[in-house]
Amino acid sequence: MMELDRRPRRGIIFILSAPSGAGKTTISRAALQRISGLEPSVSITTRTPRDGEADGIDYRFVSDDEFIRIRDAGELAEWARVFDASYGTPRAPLERAVAEGRDIMLDIDIQGARQIRINYPDDTATIFVLPPSFAELEERLRGRGTEDEAAIRRRLQRARAEASAWPEYDYLIINDELEQSIAQLGAVVAAERMRAARLRREFDPWRS
Ligand code: 5GP
Predict the structure, then answer these.
(1) Is the CB of 108 under 6 A from ligand 1?
(2) Torsion sign, CA atoms 90, 92, 93, 95
(3) Which of 17, 21, 61, 164 could, after both became Cys, cross-link 140 (CB 3.0–4.6 A)?
(4) How far from 3 is each of 36, 99, 113, 166, 208, CA to CA, in Å?
């Protein structure tokens, strides 16, 4: 368990991206449980819920019309089309967290990560997760058993293309062993929280 520092600073937007099958969801769930002061961002999506997914927790599931309404009202900090569905990050909770000094973690795709980096350049830390090999990725994707063959093929093809985006990110985690990957993510969070540039100018490090 990592303790939260008490220095006055803006909140950090941690972005976790990965090709599907890299084990990102497992890492991010564990990180949210174990790293104190790290909050999830709940995206809206037009895709149908998978077994075990809860509305308002994993995603807020909305209709196509509702998505368009929310997007056109400017209520999304970023949005993208992924696998024939739309996904977006609600703007208000994100900006509130940053202003109030709370750290938030976004589990979003590469297109979304690019938009957030452009819109909030001083407040983001981006992390890319890769499986140790492409064969491993294929195995994980098939093992999930939630999709038919055609959907798996599409995801694999897309995953290969997505994997090549890793140099755009600040940090790279090769997810060979889950515990080690979680520890590495914890190290990134700890280091980002210590960055002097994030501290408010009125902060006096010598006042107890
Ligand atoms: P899944 O449907 O498997 O939950 O997610 C598919 C992809 O959409 C994943 O790469 C996930 O990170 C991404 N994603 C989830 N929420 C968002 C979001 O709000 N914005 C963007 N751009 N991508 C998202």
Answers:
(1) yes
(2) positive
(3) 21
(4) 6, 21, 27, 29, 18
- Does the beta carbon of 47 sit less than 6 angstroms from any atom of ligand 1? yes
Q: Domains for the chain: give ranges and CATH numbers.
A: 13-41+101-197 (3.40.50.300)
pLDDT tier, 39 (very low <50, low <70, confident <90, very high otherwise): very high
Tokens found for residue 179? 């515990």
Nearest to 23, CA basis, from 33, 31, 14: 31
**Ligand 1 nearest-atom number relative to CA 17:** 12
* DSSP code of residue 177: S
User: Is 70 touching ligand 1 by the criterion CB < 6 Å?
Assistant: no
Q: How far apart are CA 176 and CA 130, in angstroms?
A: 9
Ligand 1 contact via 175 beta carbon (within 6 Å):
no
pLDDT over 70 (residue 4): no
Does pTM top 0.85 for this prediction? yes
